[in-house]
Amino acid sequence: MMKKAQIVIGLGFGDEGKGITTDFLASQNPDAIVIRFSGGQQAAHTVMIDDQKHVHSSFASGAIRGLPSYFTEHCTIHPTFLFNEQEELKAKQGNIELHIHPLAKVTTPFDVWQNRTNTRNLEHGTCGKGVGATMKRNESPYKLFAIDLIASREMLMEKLRNIAYYYGFTEEQASEDLHAFLKAIDNINWKIEDYTYLNSFNHLIFEGSQGILLDMDHGVFPHVTYASTTSKNAYEVCKFLKIEEIEMYYVTRAYATRHGNGWMSNEKVLNLRNNEEETCTFNEYQKELRLGTLDYDLLNYALKLDSAYVLATKKNLVVTCLDQWEETFKIEDVKMKFDTVFGSYSPYSKDFKRIEIFAEQSVFANFKNNQQ
């Protein structure tokens, strides 16, 4: 059977609805695997199924639906966060099967400390999960990979001591967090697998993290994420697996959002409705969720930019939170041609059940009124 890939990409600064889009695809393809190909434990993707709600960070957004997860070498993992979410998913009867590429980067308590206490990190913007510090450290000789977690404990401890030295910390300064870190490692059934493992699946769903406007190469520096948030990494995996059928799902809200510091066009106070289930409204390090009207020039920029990284056989647009903002989405201002346009209501309205497919873009403007 010919293999197929579906890639979910956010077009903004994050929070576009990648989780709900991934869950929608997972519901249609129960034999697929969901692959995270950028970011790590800082990506919080909320999925609601009936009265069940889960925020996916260390697992992909198909887990609550019952699909296995895979994290590529471009991702970070934090064993403590991973273990805590694993226990949450167990209680919700989600799928805790997680396979991780040997070269995925490991976040340590020292990386988290660095993210939360370094003045420059705080000025540039951080969610306090240690991801940026992890990626930066792994450019130095003080690396730590997923494969190291199943090596000897003696070698792991020596690497952790060296990482503490790299930051100027002592083991004692993070002894409590380090104890939880090591305990989590011992309580996880690690499945460290390279990309050949993915050959056992005919359908792959790639779930992006954050949005193209935060890409480390294309966002407005220094307020960017330490990751490629375009389809670049996902497409590299597809080429390795010789997958030719690639379907894109580009996601945007009906309005703009941004967490943390940095430039944002069209920022303003919006009087939203039906957003009671908004998950990430405040973060100690990023502060309040910022809002604004949609900038169609940036939307078109993100779409054209991503096309430079991926050769897709089909392109789709997903517009989420249509019932939260009074302005109508202007499909006529989007310059890319799509095979299908999807419209979605807010999670509060349980829109995962009511994502509708549009064969003709011209009927999109009528979606909101027709579906109320």
How would you write the strand order of the largest sheet? 9-7-5-2-10-1-11-16-17-18
Judged by helices, strands and strand pairing, the structural class is: alpha/beta
The name of the CATH superfamily reads Adenylosuccinate Synthetase, subunit A, domain 1
Q: What is the highest CATH level, the class?
A: Alpha Beta
Q: How many strand elements?
A: 18
Share of residues in strands: 15-25%
What does this structure look like?
The chain is α/β, with parallel strands linked by helices and about 375 residues long. The chain has one domain (about 5-100, about 190-370): Adenylosuccinate Synthetase, subunit A, domain 1 (Adenylosuccinate Synthetase, Chain A, domain 1, 3-Layer(aba) Sandwich), CATH 3.40.440.10. It has ten helices and 18 strands. The chain has helices at about 20-30, 80-90, 110-115, 120-125, 130-135, 155-165, 175-185, 230-240, 295-305, 365-370; strands at about 5-10, 35, 45-50, 50-55, 70, 75, 100, 105, 190, 205, 245-255, 255-260, 280-285, 285-290, 290, 315-320, 340-345, 355-360. A ten-stranded mixed β-sheet has the order 9-7-5-2-10-1-11-16-17-18, with helices on one face. A two-stranded antiparallel sheet has the order 3-4. Strands 6-8 form a two-stranded parallel sheet. Strand 13 (about 280-285) and strand 14 form a beta hairpin. Helix 3 crosses helix 5 (about 130-135). Mean pLDDT is about 85; it is low at about 350-370.
